[in-house]
Design a protein that fits this description.
This protein is α+β, with helices and mostly antiparallel strands and about 120 residues long. The protein is built from three helices and seven strands. The strands form two sheets. Strands 1, 2, 5, 6 and 7 form a five-stranded antiparallel beta sheet that branches. A two-stranded antiparallel ribbon has the order 3-4.
Length: about 120
Amino acid sequence: MNVNEIDRNELSTYFNNAQFKLLNINAHLQELYIDENEYKQSISSSNIFVNKAKITGQITDEGFLKFTGTAHAIYVNENRANLSRWEKLNTEYKFALYTFFAGVLGFIFTRLRFILNENNRYIL
């Protein structure tokens, strides 16, 4: 839907309770809230891309566009606005998880090598 081709007075007939899976907005924004928190980075001239979403659009009484729902990824000016759980994790926890999984893999491969070396037909 190209909003530029729709009269402002008729916009609500097309937009209210509309379901969106993908959304790309190129506009000057006054306010932007993501996960109920105000997104305070540079939004004066924003390109917003919402991917894999289940969102509903509405026009408020004040004439603002309001989207509610869930989205897999939201990008504002090519920066991820809603971080994944992994991206929110502190570096120390990431390092600990990497170390743990490396240790588990090392143990598995060492044990596998030991088992295979015990069998004379499959010597590594």
